[in-house]
Amino acid sequence: MAQQAFALHAVSIRLACSAFGISETCYRYQAKLCDDNALIAKQLIELTEENSDWGFGLCFSYLRHVENHCWNHKRVYRIYCELALNLRIKPRRRLKRHAPEPLKEPIRENQVWSLDFMHDQLIDGRKFRLLNVIDDYRREGLAIEAGFSLPTIRVIRTLNQLLEWREKPLVIRCDNGPEFISHEFVRWATEQGIRIEYIQPGKPQQNAYIERYNRTIRYSWLSKHLFDTLEEVQDYATSWLWHYNYERPHQANKGKPPLMAA
After folding, report:
1. 37/217: higher pLDDT
2. CATH number of the domain that 242 lies in?
3. Is 23 contained in some domain?
4. Rounded distance, CA 240 to CA 238, Å?
5. Secondary structure (3-state) at 213
6. DSSP 3-state assignment of 70?
7. In terms of residue numbers, what domain contains 5?
């Protein structure tokens, strides 16, 4: 309006700004394109193409804590919206349920490990399983074991391999699957001095950390790729586990990857 008054009515800029209650600095301001904006846009596009399940929070945390850029989050979010990279998630109707008991937050590493299984299939239809193990403190991924069958002896072998380079946990949290309630597994835990904490049947929220980790695996790579052999699954899981621990931001760690969190 001030610009129109100046152009059409031949009034001075000072009078036009005074009439419409704006400063002359605001009137004369011209936005300057910054090369950083193009760099931000390029990196956002690369991140969302490589990690299609990442929203703005993970993208910004990666740029801030992994790439060590000091861009303001409002600036990055503006460019993120201009590029139309927002995740479109259809809301689901939720049933009203009683609030579950809060999950206790570990205060140090190797206090609680969580275990759980996942299922999928190869391109030829053969079904396989994944045994996931995490340290609840900082949500560090410890192991992903792939196999057509993962009986108790394979579970124990995987845990023994972890104990070769890592201090044993005080507690192992798991569900009531046959591999975890077997006499062999209970005897192994007793010999190691580890307490097994079983969740209640039908209460997966009591093992929420590993359930959220399972979802990350499902949407990050397991549902995005087809595998021909079990060896391909294991190789990809091993490389992704390194990416998860060292590069993938985690909101529970204030936007830092598990092994980069202080």
Report:
1. 217
2. 3.30.420.10
3. yes
4. 5
5. helix
6. coil
7. 1-30
Task: For residue 260, give the DSSP letter.
Answer: G
Q: What is the mean pLDDT of residues 120-140?
A: 96
Q: What is the pTM of this model?
A: 0.75
Buried b (16+ CB within 10 A) or exposed e, 162-187: beeeeeebebbbbbeeebbebeebee
Tokens read off for 140:
């560090």
Compute the distance between CA of residue 246 and CA of residue 8 in angstroms, rounded to an integer: 61
Residue 167 structure tokens: 């201090």
**Is residue 7 assigned to a domain?**
yes
Interhelix angle for 73-82 vs 35-50, to 10°? 70
Identity of the amino acid at 42: K
Residue 209 lies in a domain: yes
Let me know: does 76 contact 63? Beta carbons within 8 Å. Answer: yes
Q: What share of the chain is helix, strand, coil (3-state, %, to 5)?
A: 50, 15, 35
According to the model, what pLDDT value does residue 5 have? Answer: 83
| Residue in 181, 211, 234 with CA at minimum distance from that of residue 116 | 211
Residue in this structure with the two tokens 């621990």, named with its chain if needed: 245
The least confident of 54-63, 97-106, 120-129 is 97-106
**CA neighbours within 13 Å on the CB side: how many for 8?**
5
pLDDT in tens, 56-87: 999 999 999 999 999 999 999 999 999 988 87
Residue 94 counted as domain residue: no
Written as six digits, the tokens of 217 are 């695996």
Q: Are 62 and 249 in contact (CB under 8 A)?
A: yes
CB 16 within 8 A of CB 2: yes
As a whole number of angstroms, the distance between CA 64 and CA 59 comes to 9
